[in-house]
Amino acid sequence: MSKANKAGSLAIAVDGKKGSSATIAVAGFAMLMTLSVGTARNSMARRDARISSTDLKMSVRVYNYAGDSTDMLRVAESETEKIFAKAGVHLEWHDCTSTARAQSADPTCAAPVTPSDLRLRIVNRVQLKDSHASALASGFTFGDFIIVQLEHLRELPVPAACFRDVMLGRVIAHEMGHALLGEAHSPQGIMQARWGEEQFDLKAVSQMLFSPDQARALRLAVKTRTRP
């Protein structure tokens, strides 16, 4: 039940100014139970068009261990929040980085984790043992626990049209999508398996979203988690 399964990988290829390219993978992982529930929620949501998006909220506890600036992280969070808002889900961010040092003023960080909480770790690099993850992975999801490592995002030869905070925000949204919907990818949108330079362009904001079916499944997943 607690064994994590590989949820597929999202390959990102970005061309540099001189034609060089770098490829990274954003892998989605989910526990076996989460995957099966996510698949069921997808099917249920397609049949239930009456799900309301009113007051649908998820709490995200953020632990920034990568040393990136607060401003960059806030922009990334804003990008993720916009993507989820379009699907009818409001995100509440809680900076829990200092909780480990017993200095956090946010009481949410010290409260027990509930089904309406996701836990996001931003790290420079992590080594996963006994895992089939790619060595070039930038994102992992284990149930409600998400890890995003920035090493490969920083090393990409990003064109001027791309912004690393926007890249980070969309990677976070993709991994949170795996946490709530399961392992499936889609041919387009935020959950597509392969990304190129255009997926990180600011002008791609209207394309890098959840599909209507995914948005309905997302609302159902959140409604199920937050039900009293």
Walkthrough of the structure:
α1 (32-47) packs across α7 (212-226). The protein has 7 helices and 8 strands. It has helices at 32-47, 70-86, 107-110, 151-155, 164-181, 197-200, 212-226, and strands at residues 4-15, 21-31, 57-64, 90-95, 117-123, 139-142, 145-149, 194-195. It starts with a strand and ends with a helix. The chain has a single domain (4-226), classed as Collagenase (Catalytic Domain) (3-Layer(aba) Sandwich), CATH 3.40.390. The protein is globular and about 45 Å long. The strands form 2 sheets. Strands 4-3-5-7-6 form a 5-stranded mixed beta sheet. Strands 2-1-8 form a 3-stranded mixed beta sheet.
Question: Can you give keywords for this protein?
Answer:
single chain, 228 residues, alpha/beta, Collagenase (Catalytic Domain), five-stranded mixed sheet, three-stranded mixed sheet
Secondary-structure topology with pairs:
Layout: E1 4-15, E2 21-31, H1 32-47, E3 57-64, H2 70-86, E4 90-95, H3 107-110, E5 117-123, E6 139-142, E7 145-149, H4 151-155, H5 164-181, E8 194-195, H6 197-200, H7 212-226
Parallel strand pairs: 1-8, 3-4, 3-5, 5-7
Antiparallel strand pairs: 1-2, 6-7
Task: Give me a quick take on this structure.
The protein is α/β, with parallel strands linked by helices. Helix content is 35%, strand content 24%. It has a single domain, classed as Collagenase (Catalytic Domain) (3-Layer(aba) Sandwich).
